Fold this protein.
Amino acid sequence: MIDAFDKSGRFLTACLRLLPAELAHDVALLAMEHGALRCFPKQQQPTLEVPLQVHVPGIGRLRHPIGLAAGFDKNIRCPTAFEHMGLSFLEMGTVTPRPQPGNPKPRIFRQPETLSIINRMGFNSHGAALVLHRLRELNWKPTSVPLGVNLGKNKTTLQEDAVNDFAAGIIAFESHAQWLTVNISSPNTSGLRDLATPEFLRSLEQAIGSLRSKCWIKLDPDMDRGSFQKMISAIKTEGFQGAVLSNTHRVESPQAGGQSGHPLLSPSNSCLEWAWDVTKGTLPVIASGGVLSGVDAYHKLARGACAIQIYTALVYRGPGATARICEELSSELKLRGFASAEEAIGSWYL
Ligand SMILES: Cc1cc2nc3c(=O)[nH]c(=O)nc-3n(C[C@H](O)[C@H](O)[C@H](O)COP(=O)(O)O)c2cc1C
């Protein structure tokens, strides 16, 4: 069953790669929205030698650690299709308070020779009202596959008002999403990364009060170690749920934008190590960045991540990527003598 899904998925992905990147993405999302994946049997988890269940604070028990990263389904159009692909938790968004078109096209560039993507989307979003309406209609049952919403600020919002954009998003979505991610790390919105300061977290905490415990903060991998570690301390002391490490790495060539995929693996692994250095595993961390295989996923768990998000792997390995990564992760854990995925979390530092 997995083979049928995987083989046809890889064939379709190869066909999509003949199109320009954003058009391929739009075609894929449209097809998924209209139930195209239902032609294939639901992606089943094979029986694995080493069990992969993990517990993520505030999100719940997941049948394996591989979830969807933000940006793939920015406007919550087809979470059911991602569930069908076997992802264990879904982060949707980034959603901005008001609709905005994002940057001019072209703005997504595949780099197959390095298994990476450069994007400068700039938060194209249908806006909070429409996305919230869609989420309400969907009436998503979080018990099977938890769904979170990633929030951003509008391009035209003044820097001093940015906190209000995030607070509005958190208040609007909190009762419809299992968790919320505060995105202060995308490289394509001018001034966004400047918000990654302990002072900003304090003002956000003052604006949202107890809702902070539902929020994860997504950081970028381009901060220097000192500033990054101050942010990790502030996330913990201000009482946010955890950190998503990391967003894309800013590059200027061959295109300006944020780079994801294989070249991001090492910088975002460093983020996990820097975070552990500060919190010794007491702050929950979701890893994102460069996971294309089960071995990559193992390295995230070993460095202290309690779950992992993928995006670029779906582009290069197709819709069967999740099952393949889980199989490879299970084999890697067995090879290294672990009895479960949870046992491997933080083992790098022992
Ligand atoms: C085309 C594209 C769009 C993205 N959009 C967002 C976004 O809207 N919000 C966000 O937090 N991250 C966004 N990301 C970053 C991903 O969520 C993820 O953190 C990053 O791609 C690293 O994971 P990967 O190496 O598995 O792709 C985007 C990534 C890509 C490739």
